Amino acid sequence: GLVEHKRRNSALSNGGKSPMSVMWLAPQLILMGIAEAFNAVGQIEFYNKQFPEQMLTLAGSLFFVTLAGANYLSTALANITRKVTTRDGHTSWLTDDINLGKLDYYFYFIALIGVLNLFYFLICSHYYQYKSMSLHAEESIKVHTKEEAEAEADANTAPWEVVEQ
C-alpha cells in the first residue's frame, strides 16, 4: 500500500510516468514468495500428519483444492471491489489506468483481510486437538536377554551358512 501510494503520487506529478524503479516492489514480493513456500510445505505436512492413514491421498489433493478455491475467491473479491467502489459515480479502485485508480486502498483492504485471517487462525489453532504424533507411544521397549538374542541370530542365519562352534 505504501509503495503504491508513493508510486501513484510520483506518477501523477511527473505526467503519468513514475520515475520510481520497479525494485521498490522486490522486498514485498520476495517476502510473499517465501511466505507462500513455507505455507505450502507446512500445510501439506499438517495434512499428512493429522489426517487418518486411509485419507492421505485426499490430504494431498486438499492442498490443490484450497489453492484453486483461493484463486476463485481472489477473482470474486476483485470483481466485488470493482462493483462496490464504482457506486455513486466514483472511479473504481481497480481501473485499467492504475494512476486514476486507488490500488493502494485495495492493498490496504487485502492487508485488513489478512489481519482478520490471522485472528481467525489463532482462534482455530487454540481450540484444535492434535492427533497423537507417535504410532507406538503405548508399546514398551523389550530388552532381549543374551539367550533370546542368540536364538534370534540363529533363526536369521541362512541354511547354507555354516556356523562353527
How would you describe this protein?
This protein has helices at 2-13, 26-50, 56-85, 103-127, 146-155. Helix 2 (26-50) runs antiparallel to helix 3. 62% of the residues lie in helices and 0% in strands. The protein contains five helices and no strands. By secondary structure, it is mostly helical. Among the domains are: 1-54, no CATH class; 101-154. The chain crosses the membrane at residues 22-42, 54-73, 105-123. This is Low affinity nitrate transporter. It comes from Aegilops tauschii subsp. strangulata.
Structural topology:
Blueprint lengths: L1 H12 L12 H25 L5 H30 L17 H25 L18 H10 L10
Keywords: Membrane, Transmembrane, Transmembrane helix
InterPro entries: MFS_trans_sf, POT_fam
GO molecular function, one term: transmembrane transporter activity
In short:
With 165 residues, this protein is an all-alpha fold. It is 62% helix and 0% strand.
Helix content: 55-70%
Low-pLDDT regions: none
**Shape call:** elongated
Largest beta-sheet details: none
What is the mean predicted local confidence, pLDDT? 83
Number of H/I helices: 5
The first-to-last residue Cα distance is: 82 Å
The computed structural class is mainly alpha
Sketch the topology as an H/E string, one letter per element. Answer: HHHHH
Radius of gyration: 29 Å
What is the tally of beta strands?
0
Q: What fraction of the residues are assigned to beta strands by DSSP?
A: under 5%
